Amino acid sequence: MKKISFYFLYFSFLFFLISCSEQRSESRVLLERESIYQPSEMATTMRQMVFDMETIKLKLKAGTIDVKDLNHIISAHSSMATDKPTDIEEIQPSFEIYSQTYIDQLEELKQIIEIDGEISDQILLFNSALATCISCHTEHCPGPISRIKKLKL
Amino acid sequence: MKYYNLIIITLTVFFASCSSPEASEESTLGYDYFGDRLDVSSAVEINQIINEMKAGKDSVYATFSAPINAICQKKGCWMELDLGNGENALVRFKDYGFFVPMDATGEIAMVEGAMKIDTLDVDWLRHQASDAGKSDSVIASINTFEVSYSILATGVALEKKIMNEESIQLED
Predict the structure, then answer these.
(1) Alpha helices (runs of H) in chain B, residue ranges in sequence order
(2) Interface contact B6, partner A, CB < 8 A
(3) Chain A closest CA to B44's CA: distance in Å?
(4) B25 contacts A25? CB cut-off 8 A
(5) Residues forming a β-bridge with B67
(6) According to DSSP H, which parts of A27-66 are helical?
(7) Neighbouring C-beta atoms of residue B43, cutoff 10 Å
């Protein structure tokens, strides 16, 4: 009887040691990383702009570009002028000029496409619009410049 | 003899349960991945990469780890790593395609990408200083370019972090 009691107490003690260790592990929770950048309205628009211009680039190369394609992106990209940026204090007065110039260049491209103008002129205008993006980013946020350069024809 | 065995078993269980849970748990907690998922087991020593560059290679593509000195505080779109021996490297992310957590300074980053020697012009250095929250006077004092290691990363991994018990209790 004494032996049984002894072994009962002994194994209870071992169980206690093991369960304390497990409780210590269970109380640790993985930290969710919260300080990850949440894209602003403007950042979201610009990601879409890259995607759209990639599509335009492919269609220009294939010779399948249509006025509807330009109507779509002119409408979608115009919002950049009023979208909320990551940091409003970073926006220079030149931003308004660049954004309008960009839209104007897309309008010109649309006109060239409408009259079935030379492919070389279409490409020139497309690249000019991208150059405007690069100029603006040089002043405001240089990070995406290398990505934009890849869009050039 | 029997009691001797019991003492051995007890001490073994005691020390096993007391062993640092942090060390054993952190090694199995895993990583948070940003960009392309990289293979953490393929990491090489940073000195190996630097030696290859010093031997004349224009660019070395590898996976390695290094402590994070600084991170862009606007978006987490760049970070600066400590390569040791007073050398730093600027890490930017391929195609501006992903960002890292802005509070990861001080952590060890596992990075996969292409390292090269780059010239960082005054405009970029001032932009970097601005993103890092430096004062206007510090930014204005940057007047010369820097030649340093630069990495275009396709993926970054950071070890998962544990919330400590105090934080759990505060949340409860």
Answers:
(1) 2-18, 21-29, 46-54, 122-131, 136-140, 165-171
(2) yes
(3) 26
(4) yes
(5) B108
(6) 41-62
(7) 16
CB spacing of A138 vs B123 below 8 angstroms? yes
Cβ atoms of A100 and A147 within 8 Å: the answer is no
Cβ of B113 under 8 Å from any chain A Cβ? no
How many whole angstroms separate alpha carbon B34 and alpha carbon B89? Answer: 18
Q: What is the pLDDT of residues B81-137, one digit of tens each?
A: 999 989 999 999 999 999 999 999 999 999 999 999 999 888 888 888 888 888 999
Q: Which residues of A touch B124 (CB under 8 A)?
A: 142
* Token pair belonging to A57: 């680039």
A123 band by pLDDT with thresholds 50, 70 and 90: very high
Helices and strands: H and E segment counts in chain B: 6, 7
The closest of B22, B168, B15 to A27, measured between CA atoms, is: B168
The region of weakest confidence among A84-93, B35-44, B125-134 is: B125-134
pTM: 0.78
How high is the ipTM of this complex?
Answer: 0.77
Residue among B74, B77, B162 minimizing CB distance to A30: B162
